[in-house]
Structures are given as structure tokens and as C-alpha cells.
Description:
Blueprint: E1 17-21, E2 24-27, E3 32-35, H1 38-41, H2 50-62, H3 73-86, E4 90-94, H4 97-114, E5 122-126, H5 135-140, E6 158-161, H6 168-171, E7 177-183, E8 185-186, E9 192-193, H7 196-208, E10 212-217, H8 230-234, E11 240-243, E12 254-258, H9 279-292, H10 297-315, E13 320-326, E14 329-334, H11 340-350, E15 352-353, E16 355-357, E17 361-364, H12 372-388
Parallel strand pairs: 3-15, 5-6, 5-7, 7-10, 10-11
Antiparallel strand pairs: 1-2, 2-3, 4-12, 8-9, 11-12, 13-14, 14-17, 16-17
Helix pairs in contact: 2-9, 3-9, 10-12, 11-12
Amino acid sequence: xxxxxxxxxxxxxxxxxxxxxxxxxxxxxxxxxxxxxxxxxxxxxxxxxxxxxxxxxxxxxxxxxxxxxxxxxxxxxxxxxxxxxxxxxxxxxxxxxxxxxxxxxxxxxxxxxxxxxxxxxxxxxxxxxxxxxxxxxxxxxxxxxxxxxxxxxxxxxxxxxxxxxxxxxxxxxxxxxxxxxxxxxxxxxxxxxxxxxxxxxxxxxxxxxxxxxxxxxxxxxxxxxxxxxxxxxxxxxxxxxxxxxxxxxxxxxxxxxxxxxxxxxxxxxxxxxxxxxxxxxxxxxxxxxxxxxxxxxxxxxxxxxxxxxxxxxxxxxxxxxxxxxxxxxxxxxxxxxxxxxxxxxxxxxxxxxxxxxxxxxxxxxxxxxxxxxxxxxxxxxxxxxxxxx
Length: 389
């Protein structure tokens, strides 16, 4: 419907969505879909979640935007709650994951300059990582396919190491290293799991060289992997965490959490965002935090993810290879010569929303409060479609 008037940078399917409830959505023709995608991990509380709708409506009546020359009462309330729940010292608000990672990159560069001069500029990221679509975050992304010649020259002083490679961290970091940026679960790279012991060892090696450690939690943050932050479970205690996607349940929101050696790096004028931390987004964010921190909620995310992975494995379908994930961030490798994109299209036709990741991985990131009824309905569609391949 909109493919001729909206620039199709996304390779979008010719499907126009009009409404949703819970983890079920409907298109303009009234067709029903089970949502295992959640706007790519954005709609963490599903669709038409009443407390979220009410909070957004009430805030819109009161105040939508406040210039960042000032602060809003809702923004202060949200920041206080967020820092209390995460244990960080300060928060910077933006609008997206790319903005959050841009802020992290700039903070790391300034930290390096203040603690080593012009030579301490290098930021290490992981192979197969994904950090955003701006020039800096594209460069930080550890996948060559995101570095086409048409966008060159790219930003300098980025290097990569392979996740879970113990030899690499013995020699990677030195007095030119400003930061190590770890994507806690590599979503776009194929839902690849970072080993906790390796992450702690890599973080120690980077810190021993004088660098700070940062976590990209744009997709893994806010309960997606079964803990409030995925870095909590990995245990490497980053000085900076970028966040976005599920932070406000669908309202654009992003930023970075800061603590320790990174807490006092930014000064007035170093980095800004016109819409960042607007009261509407903060009101939505308060609802998300309230839901995620209810007793048993995050445990249920871990349980639902385990349930989905075990169900898929139990089918022993020859078209499915390794199944990976944490919480409700799930990847299933599709065995060649079958294509994950081919499967994604067939699932869409059959009423299940999913996405692809990496070379040939089906990615599933449903709303965190998805019901078991909707899970089973979605799994039935997936099972039938796999059998038809």
C-alpha cells in the first residue's frame, strides 16, 4: 500500500498492518498474524497494552515535549527509577539504538583522549556484531556486508575481535585502546551467544590496558534475555550500556547508562538530542519498567524462551539446525539449501511474523508478555510451514 510513496530501504513486504491486541496483529484485509517479531524486539508489552495506552494518553494531555534547556517531571521520575533499577550513576536520553551507540562511541573517544591523548582512539567491537546504520555505528559493526564501497570512507580507529576467542584477548588491547564494546547477544549476526567467562576476561584485559568497557543492549536490554540487562547475567559490569528498542514499549526511545570511570566524561555541549527524553517516551518507559520489575515477570521471559526452543527441537525437523537464544531472543538455523528468507515469507503467508538474522537464521523476538496460547498458535504455524518446505 505504501511501497510507492515511502522509500523502501527495508525491502518491506506488501502487507499493511492496521491494529493489534496482545501478540496478535491484523492487516488492512483483516488477516490475523501471531507476532513473533514485536517490531524487532520493540513492542515488548505487545499491542494495545492498556496501562501503556493510558500512560501515553494521559501524558499527551499534559505535555509531549520539553526543550532540553529544561527538564520534565516525568523525565526526572523515569531517570530516577531507571537508575535505581539498574545501579548506574547517570543516563543520557536519545531516540534510537543508533543514537545510543553514537553517544557511547563519542564518550569512549573522549575518555580515551582524556586518559591517553590522541593515540588512545581505538574502539574494539566483536566480529558478527551490529551497532546501527549511521556511518560510525556501521563502521563499528563487525560484518563486512554492512560496509559497501558506496558509503566509504568509513570512520577510522575501529577494530574487531572474535567473540569467545580466548587467544585474541591476550594481545588485542594496548595503550591505543579507548573502549571495548560488547553486543551481549549478537542479534543481527545470527543470535550468537557471548560466553560469560570470556566476556569477563575480555573486559578485564581491556581495563588492564586502560580502556573502558561498554555493552550494546539495544536489542538485549529491558528484559529481552530474561534479566533486566543482558550484561547483568554476563557479569562484566560495563561502564556504559546503550539501550533502545523495548525501552518504551514502541515509543521511540534510546540512550546510554553511565557509571564509574565513564560517569563524568560528558560535559555540556558534548552530545545532544532534540527529542531525547521527551515526557511522552519517559511516561511509556515508566510503564515498561513497572511491568518488567513485577515479581516473576523476568523469570517468565526465560521460561517462555526455553519452552519455545525445546518445542522446536522436539520436532526434529531436518530443515532446522542449531537453535540458540536467551529468554525471548531466539534463533533457529535453517539448513541449506533452504533459505531463512524463504521460510520468513512462507510464515508471513501462513500468519506468523518473524525475521531473519546472520547468514541463514530465523529470528524470533516476540513480546515479553506473550501468552502461552499465542506461543502455541505461533509454533503450530511454524511447525506446519517447516514441514511444507
